[in-house]
TrEMBL record:
SUPFAM superfamilies cross-referenced by the UniProt entry: Ribonuclease H-like
Domain Integrase catalytic: 1-95
Pfam name, any one: rve_2
Organism: Corynebacterium endometrii
UniProt-listed GO biological process terms: DNA integration
PROSITE patterns named among the record's database cross-references: INTEGRASE
GO molecular function terms listed in the Swiss-Prot or TrEMBL record: nucleic acid binding
Lineage top rank: taxon: Bacteria
Protein name in UniProt: Integrase core domain protein
Length: 100
């Protein structure tokens, strides 16, 4: 789990909770907001495109919605920064070019 260096994320009870679930904590370096910029960008899209105004009846419903969004994001969402392709199309083209 990636977090910033806020006090609540450094507290021993938070670290124990993460460890009890089998998680591993990582933190950005102090004063460096770019350590996790790619994921922060993705989460920004997720929040505005999937969560905005939505209520979920259960954590299971939320989990399914997140899985569906990630699949859609990778296979259908066109992105200008990668030449109007989906992430999967861009990945496939890049791998094909490397194989030549």
């Amino acid at each position: 789990m990636h977090t910033d260096q806020g006090f609540h994320y450094q507290h021993s009870s938070w670290r124990k909770l993460i460890a009890s679930c089998g998680g591993i904590q990582s933190m950005s370096r102090k004063g460096n907001c770019y350590d996790n910029a790619v994921m922060e960008n993705f989460f920004g899209h997720l929040k505005t495109e999937m969560f905005h105004g939505e209520l979920f009846a259960s954590t299971e419903e939320l989990s399914v919605a997140i899985d569906d969004y990630i699949f859609w994001y990778n296979t259908q969402r066109l992105q200008a920064r990668i030449k109007g392709l989906t992430p999967m199309e861009y990945r496939s083209q890049t791998l094909a070019a490397l194989a030549v």
